[in-house]
Every structure is written in C-alpha cells, then in structure tokens.
Amino acid sequence: xxxxxxxxxxxLIDFLCTGSDEDDGLMLPCFRQYPGGAPANAAVAVAKLGGxxxxxxxxxxxxxGDFLANSLARYGVDISLLGRHVSAPTSLAFVHxxxxxxxxxxxxxxxxxxxxxxxxxxxxxxxxxxxxLHLCSNTLTTPQSAEATLSIADKAIAAGLYVSVDVNxxxxxxxxxxxxxxxxxxxxxxxxxxKFAREELEYLADSTQIDFIQTLLDSxxxxxxxxxxxxxxxxxxxxxxxxxxAPKVDVVDTTAGGDGFIGGLLYRIxxxxxxxxxxxxxxLKDALGFAIGCGALAVSxxxxxxxxxxxxxxxxxxxxxxxx
Length: 324
Fold this sequence. Notes:
Layout (H helix, E strand, L loop, with lengths): L3 E5 L3 E12 L2 E11 L1 H11 L3 E9 L2 H12 L3 E8 L6 E6 L5 E6 L21 E7 L6 H16 L3 E5 L14 H8 L4 E5 H7 L4 H10 L4 E6 L2 E7 L2 E5 L12 H16 L1 H4 L3 H19 L11 H12 L2
Parallel strand pairs: 1-4, 1-8, 2-6, 4-5, 8-9, 9-10, 10-11
Antiparallel strand pairs: 2-3, 6-7, 11-12, 12-13
Helix pairs in contact: 1-7, 7-9, 9-10
C-alpha cells in the first residue's frame, strides 16, 4: 500500500475568464469559479490517481473557503489539516487566457488566510505514514508563511520524508514585484525533488545553469526537473540527465499543467519510492512519461481540479504514447 503525499500551501479560488458578453455597449468579462492553488491542485492530482493525499493550509471562514473544502473532499483529499481563519478571507486569483491557452494571473491575496499560517500549528503527527511533503514558493511571500514553510520542510526531513518543491514563481505576489532569490533558495536547498520552469531556472541561477543544477544535486537534491511549456522536459539526477518529449495535445488552459505533471510524479514516488524510481534509467523514464502525460491531459481541459486525470485515463494515455 502506498504512503501518503502531504501538500502544504495555498488553496484559493481561480476565476477563469470564459469570454465576454456585451451589455449597453460595454464588453463585460465572464468569469467561472474554479477551485485552485498549486499545492491544492497537486493534492487533487494525487487523489484522482488513486493515491493518498492530505492537504494542509488555511482558507477563510467564508463561502469561498466552504467551496474549497468541499471541492478537495469531493476528490478524496484528506482535509483534516485544512484550517479556517476566523477573520481573514480566502485568497482569489483571476485567470486570463490568451489564444494559445496560456494564462496570466491577477491575485487578491493581501491579508489572505493562506498567508497567515502559523508554524506553531505543525505537529509531528502530520508526517506519519507519509512518503513525501510537497511545497511551492507562494507560501514564501510573507514572513509568517515563509517561516511556517521552512519549518514544515525541516520537520518533514527530520521525520525521514522526501521534500518536493515546485518553484512556481509568481513575481506579482512578492513585494517589489520580483521574488526574493535568497528566500526561494532557502526552500530550494531543502528539496530532494525540484521542479523548475525554464524561466524560473534562468532567474535563480547565479552561475551557469549546468553549474547551478549540479551544485543542487551535489548538496542533496535527488531529482531536478526543468519544464518548458510543451517543449521537452529535462531531468537531472546524480551525474546523469534525460530529455523526454511532451506529447502534442490541443491546449485549452495551461493552469493545471505543471500541477498535473508533479502530481503524477508524486503519486509514483508515494507508490514505488523515490529510490526505486531512480534505480534505472528505464524506471525513471516510465515514471516521468506517466507524469508528463498527466500534465498533457490537464492542459487539454479548462480549470484545475476538474481537468486533472484519473488513473485509468492517465495509464491508457501513457501506454498509447510509450508504445506499451
């Protein structure tokens, strides 16, 4: 039986622009409410694949918080560690899509519940029967949530868990409009599994990218992944590397693409163990191919939670693309 995946961070509302209507000469954008937040998406991705996912974080004691709690539970995510802040609101994000399905975000998160998580709330029981802790950088944008994030990572490591980090930089959430490299690197340096988008790697690498990657691998990272939209995924482990093509799909909405990918990988890590996946090139290729397929399926549909695939669909898609 696979162990649990624990995802910590923001659960928020994605208002996805679905077009516009004309009214009295005005073009009025139409937004549809979806549950979202990168670590919440990852938890749902694991749960929809049949894995054991638990989500920890804070939402408001409001209708949006109710919606998120109900949505996570709907997909089988354990929400026993989801807190409800008595006064702070649930954070909101308005998602605008261009003609290619790529998105831009407008966040309403200042003073949001997810930014107010207290490190003192973390208990060692969080890590029981758990294989991996998954984190993203958006909980680093305020001092209080940054302290909680790094504390949770340290406690997970002490409990023998792997730490997974999807860098997932959203510069407009940071004071001054750009992410603090030192703060982000404090989390990156704790990770056993790292996922960068190409532009995030370029932003954080102070030396050449290959030197930067090798330094992280030499200091404890076991698997480092670099995604680039629909272009091939690069994987680095030990002194080795792989490049895997992404299948071509009709892109509708890229919101859950990265989370679908990392969720597929987290599911495999919890099921098989990270060391087992890294044992041979073939086992790693198979796990990454499966994860890439999960991400590809997610971008072919709108929204986040509803777009993520179930196990039968993900396995059939992976088999069709790998010639199995």
